[in-house]
Amino acid sequence: MAEAQGRRYDVPEADAFTRAYWDAAAEGRLLIRRCAACGRAHHYPREFCPFCWSEDVTWEDASGRATLYTWSVVHRNDLPPFDGRTPYVAAVVDLAEGPRMATEIVGPGELCAGAELEVTFREGVPVFGRADASGASGASDASGA
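Above: the chain sequence. Below: its structure as tokens.
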């Protein structure tokens, strides 16, 4: 019912600052922010560095590689569009560039802490799937099933 009114609960509303992030995601690119003052990368996007508070922070393309930190299989969620995706895997991953990111794991494969993952995109939203030995994502179908 809420989704019928145009409201989605799985993505925030883009504003002038985050539009670059969401536009890149729609193009299949994952962006992070990097501080020129201390050199550290961070995610979620902020207009200042959460480590040294510098405002000298810029957008940077992330590699799309990550390792699985933790996850939980969600069997019930009544909010659209999650209600049609259950069960799904909510997860936290460590991006290769350093930041930790909340996401969803899609595609087949056993999960274990430290598993190598690669970003893919579902309707302009970054999600992660298992990376195989060749470096290609094991999540070619990002349907969330």
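Confidence is low (pLDDT under 50) at residues 133-145.
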